Amino acid sequence: MSRPAEGGASENGALRGRGRLLRVVELAEGAAGQICGRLFAGLGHSVTKCEPPGGDPMRTREPVDSEGMSYAFAAYNADKKSVILDLEKDRDRLDRLLAAADILITDLGPTRAAETGLAPDRLRAAHPRLTVVSITLYGASDPRSDVHGDSLLAESYGGLAAMVGEPERPPLSLGGEQAAHTGAFVGFYGAMLALRRPGGDAVDVALCDAAAYIDWKSDVVHAETGQVQTRSGTNSGRWRIVRAADGWLGFIFQPEQWDAVVELVGHPALEDPLLSTDQARWELRDAWWAVVERWAAKLPKREMYERAQRLGLPFGYCANLADLASDPQYRARSFITDAEGRVRLAPVKGLPWRFGPPPSLEAEALVPSPRNPEPGSDGADRAPLAGVVVLDLGTITAGAATGRLLADYGATVVKIESMDRPDAFRVWPVPAAEDAEAMEESPLFQSNNAGKLGITLDLKSEAGRAEMRRLVARADVLIENFTVGVTERLGIDPATLRKVNPRLIYLSLSSQGQSGPESGTRSYGSTLDLLSGLASVTGYGTDGPMWSSADINYPDQLVSLFGAGLIAYCVVQDLRGTYLDVSQRELVSWTLADRVIEYLDAGTVPAPTGNRRPGSTPHDVYRCAGDDQWVAIACRTDAERAALAALVGADRLAKKPSHWWADHREKVDAAVTAWTRRRSKGECVTELNRAGVPSAPVLSALERAQDPHFARRRVFLDGPPRQKGFPLRLAGHEPPPPGPAPRLGQHDTEVRDGRLPGHVPEKEHTEVPSQRPGGST
């Protein structure tokens, strides 16, 4: 296996504020908990992985390298330490680890946690300053979390799978372990919020909530229109994936860019006056799309992508893992390097990032000394980010959603727009709403901007820039997701604003990062689905790539969770003056780190495998009685397979070894489908759960809205209007419902007079003492 590169210098030089070394204990068998621990290890903190006798089963989960090490294990556990622990026999040693720790990451279900004395409330009682991050399928106290859950089950119950795939084919899980990565990012953000609270807190992350949070637009659309969105696929919408001479191309454009499309394709049929309006193009789509498909089939995918980008069209080509390994943008930014057998994959520039080897099974971590006793706190229910002032220049989704997450947990977020060019999301059409264009303000804008203040500035004028400088001087954070180069033209680039406020935390969320030959490209989430490699491993098999669709825009949603976590991390660690450069494309590619390492080591170019994943079989969705009704099943153990075989009346399969089940998927699928097709989805889930078979219904937006789980956990909020809620739960703090999104320029007078409504200066925040003597990150 290629050796990961260690270290990574900050592009800020010496960061302002030392940051303290966090001690993290990881007690997690699933991917999400291990990825969450990986984030801390990557940032240079001490992460001790607790493995059962014999080692974590993921160590040998296929595919593996020549030494039998799983690529997934290597990716998820780089830079950690390891200790072998039997939870029943080694409790004293575990207690010593926890006594010295700042954070515990666990994915134990409620029954197992209670049996071992590791339930979050008991842990917090025994270790009052320990932050506990619990990442399970349905939540720390939900008995359904006793059964192991993975991304397929989370994306099914969360409704995300219902939105991915072709309309007449089964729902799809996104390639890799996307719900696990989403849940890990949520857990990391929650840990930072907990560390801002006196004495820490318990963080409860449900993977199905994380998946539902990603798909928030479907819920809002259903509430507004009564329409239940479903899979739109790659060849039926306004944007499509077409075959190129050497792969696939994402044909992505806005109605006002039609002239550029005509110029790109250069075919007289597209110049027909009958195609002058978006409505007419939709009605005549079969005719002109055929022209586009014939044109694309003759040309290389990257050539078409580059030509389209030069015309300002946000096209993307489907990059596979071989493309990424040699990609000039990734090489220029050192996102992927394998010189002399060294690999480095860093999801952020601006903070030191490590990508070292995983721990060996033999090298156990030393148990550190306990923390010194610290004074207790009054435990006041104060919002974790109270006192933090954020200037939000984010537009549409990525930047604006990051600001919303910070506002939800107490930050004073000031949304800055131009009167001449407000956030385009204010008038963004709602799919399936006949009167969408006539709406005064889009409900999608409301969800992304609830709880913020709103002002207008003309940053093209000296007066506007002067006002911006006054705001920056008293702000803590700035967020922007402009096209690269815009901030310099407006005089709000990091170098300029650092002179105004050296302590400003500045987050740039761009398509491909702030440097490199493709930094100025234009994109939407669907563009990045393709360019990141995610689409190349999502799909039904040999039928071509699949994206998350314009209705989800998965990269935009994912980066907002990561961005909020980074900002909270810099606040907690007092890393002031930090410039965070996050490429949305690189971040999504980072979720495929195990496949990247596999390619660099073995030359394997992964292809879509439907819902099947290594280490589990059967692992798929199965049709139930009714229209578009499905249940997901994910078996990891022989016992689970035997239980499934007995339930579906296929006793002959019960004693077959796991490799037989994997090699004879067609026979297995036929037996399971014969059973599920005769039952409703609810009946299937009830009987599967009773038999102990890991399963979940594939929910639509309508079914999700009716499920009390999501209302109880406040994943969505009933307004009016209905809007997305919160991706996590804190035991000690319940955020209030956010106020409405600001009207354009609503708070101009107050903010320009120096007043920030609802803002409490951070100096009044209860001082949270250092959890333990720490060093620099």
What does this protein structure show overall?
With 777 residues, the protein is α/β, with parallel strands linked by helices. 35% of the residues lie in helices and 12% in strands. The protein contains 31 helices and 23 strands. It is globular. The two termini are 28 Å apart.
Features:
777 residues; alpha/beta; Rossmann fold; formyl-coa transferase, domain 3; seven-stranded mixed β-sheet; six-stranded parallel β-sheet; 23 strands; disordered C terminus; CoA-Trfase_III_dom_1_sf; transferase
Give start-end ranges of low-pLDDT stretches: 6-14, 373-379, 433-438, 764-777
* Biggest β-sheet description: 7 strands, mixed
- Any idea what the shape is? globular
Rounded average pLDDT: 91
Which structural class is indicated by helix and strand composition? Answer: alpha/beta
Adjacency order of strands in the biggest sheet: 4-3-2-5-6-7-23
Give the CATH class of the domain at 23-225. Alpha Beta
**What Rg do the Cα atoms give?**
25 Å
Distance between the termini: 28 Å
What is the strand content? 5-15%
Number of helices: 31
Percent of residues in helices comes to 25-40%
CATH topology assignment of the domain at 23-225:
Rossmann fold
The CATH superfamily of the domain at 23-225 turns out to be Crotonobetainyl-coa:carnitine coa-transferase, domain 1
CATH architectural category of the domain at 23-225: 3-Layer(aba) Sandwich
Query: How many β-strands, per DSSP?
Result: 23
